[in-house]
Every structure is written in structure tokens, then in C-alpha cells.
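testing teh design pipeline on a random one, pls ignore if ur not involved
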């Protein structure tokens, strides 16, 4: 009972880091006093770039996908490694602004739960879910209420 316990951990390398960026209406908020022009969305983009930088430096592949945008305006970048991956990610996310649409967290959760870095599968699953929700009366009522 008096023996010390030693556990050795090994860093996991070559992971796939997929970042989902919420572009919905809630990201337009700025709740910090005196920080004019720094919305939640700006803070998220800063976090995405910093996380990407660290992950790429550690040898991981990094990709991103937006949600909370009108249909057809999503952007996605397959996970990549290397020194040019960060520039590609920033170029893909450049110019994105939060929209007045409601973010579909159910679809975003589904994308996260899929787990794999196969971006094409994620996009297809997102489109299937969007079509299913388009026929849902509760979703239609919520969207009509938001438009009013």
C-alpha cells in the first residue's frame, strides 16, 4: 500500500480537429462594455485561429465548417496539415459575418457526433437533416416567428 503509483501518458498525435463556427444571430451580440466592434463572432474567430495554430503546431489536421447560415451559404474546409493549412483556413473564413438566421444546433450536434473528418459525409448529413426539419411544423413556426 505504500508504493507510489506512476502513470505515463503519451501525447496523441495526428488527430483530426474539426471546428464548427456558429454564424447565427446570437453571435452578433456584444455584451462587453467598452468593447465596441467586438462581437461574440469576432471572439469565436480569434479562438478558431488560435486553436488551429496550436493544433497544427502539434501535428494535427485542422478543418472548419460554418453553421447558422442560410441554406447554401455554409462554408467548409476539409481537415489539413502543414504550415499552409492555417492560411487556407483564414482565407476560407475571411468575410464571413453572422447572419440574422437561427442556428440549427441539432444539426451541428449531429455533425460533431459523427466524429470522422470526412467533410463530405458531414455536409450530406447536414443537408439531409435540413430537409427533414424543413417539413417539421415546429421548425416552420419558429422561422415564421423569427422573420416577423
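output:
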Amino acid at each position: 500500500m505504500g508504493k507510489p503509483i506512476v502513470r505515463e501518458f503519451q501525447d496523441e498525435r495526428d488527430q483530426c480537429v474539426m471546428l464548427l463556427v456558429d454564424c447565427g444571430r446570437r453571435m452578433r451580440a456584444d455584451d462587453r462594455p467598452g468593447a465596441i466592434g467586438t462581437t461574440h463572432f469576432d471572439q469565436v474567430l480569434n479562438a478558431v485561429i488560435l486553436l488551429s495554430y496550436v493544433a497544427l503546431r502539434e501535428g494535427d489536421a485542422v478543418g472548419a465548417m460554418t453553421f447558422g447560415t442560410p441554406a447554401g451559404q455554409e462554408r467548409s474546409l476539409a481537415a489539413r496539415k502543414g504550415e499552409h493549412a492555417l492560411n487556407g483556413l483564414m482565407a476560407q473564413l475571411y468575410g464571413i459575418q453572422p447572419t440574422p438566421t437561427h442556428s440549427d444546433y441539432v444539426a451541428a450536434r449531429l455533425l460533431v457526433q459523427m466524429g470522422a473528418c470526412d467533410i463530405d459525409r458531414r455536409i450530406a448529413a447536414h443537408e439531409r437533416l435540413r430537409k427533414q426539419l424543413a417539413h417539421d411544423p415546429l421548425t416552420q413556426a419558429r422561422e415564421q416567428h423569427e422573420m416577423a
